[in-house]
Design a protein that fits this description.
With about 240 residues, this protein is an alpha/beta fold. It is about 20% helix and about 25% strand. Strands 1, 2, 3, 4, 5, 9, 10, 11 and 12 form a nine-stranded mixed beta sheet that branches. Strands 6-8-7 form a three-stranded antiparallel beta sheet.
């Protein structure tokens, strides 16, 4: 019986990386990012990549590593943040950015994973986001109407996700905010690789707790447990006598 488990991130990506492919990667800021798999993607040296995700990492972390290595041609994202390399490459016309409202990006990925080629949304109508997109007017129950724009579903040649727990069948559980874009991205990949913190026997995960069913996951690698970074530590001064 074949196994979905691979010994390392590099082995999990073996045979999948090629120039010009589309990669979707989970994560929101620094949370829920498949760090080992992104390092392996960088080391693959695949070029002219299209990358889908909420953002492209930040200084020396996450997808920033692939961007800094000059491997990305286009990004489809909802947040550019403080990524100076991305800003410079975009201003110099070295990289293409397709901006999306955050909810629209999530729905485009969900639609792609569900086999839905396109959908209509009110978000973005009348703005730069709507340029070049089909617009239609739909009636509301009260007799009024609103304009909507058509957005297409998104799929990826390879999806990289980060989960807290998995079994050998590929059933995934994400922990708290790390759930973010990971479930949609897992479903949208033609090949999906899950980087997990804990591997448990099949049957140990309560079916009601599964966030991504194993049918969507092709390969699994156990994380090396890289440090979990905080993007902007924020604290407040403690008052006298306040417990630590």
């Amino acid at each position: 019986m074949s196994t979905k488990l691979y010994a390392s991130a590099a082995q999990a990506l073996a045979g999948l990386c090629r120039d010009g492919m589309t990669v979707a990667a989970g994560g929101f800021g620094l949370c829920g990012v498949p760090l080992d798999l992104i390092v392996a993607l960088r080391d693959s040296q695949a070029r002219n990549l299209t990358v889908i995700g909420n953002n492209v990492g930040c200084d020396e972390h996450g997808m920033w590593l692939v961007l800094a290595n000059g491997q990305i041609r286009k990004v489809i994202l909802s947040y550019a943040g403080d990524n100076k390399i991305l800003e410079r490459a975009f201003m110099n016309q070295e990289i293409e950015i397709e901006f999306n409202p955050q909810g629209t990006l999530a729905e485009r990925l969900r639609a792609g994973g569900a086999g839905i080629p396109a959908f209509f949304t009110r978000t973005g109508y009348g703005t730069l986001i709507a340029e070049g997109k089909e617009a239609r007017q739909f009636a509301n129950p009260d007799g009024s109407s609103d304009w909507y724009i058509m957005e297409t579903g998104l799929t990826a040649d390879v999806s990289l996700v980060k989960a807290w727990k998995a079994d050998a069948a590929g059933n995934l559980v994400y922990r708290k905010t790390a759930r973010n874009f990971n479930p949609m991205i897992a479903a949208a990949g033609r090949i999906t690789i899950a980087e997990v913190e804990e591997l448990v026997p099949v049957g140990e995960i309560d079916p009601d707790q599964v966030h991504t069913p194993g049918i969507f996951v092709d390969r699994i690698v156990v994380s090396t447990r890289q440090p979990k970074h905080i993007e902007r530590p924020t604290t407040r001064p403690r008052t006298a006598g306040e417990p630590v």
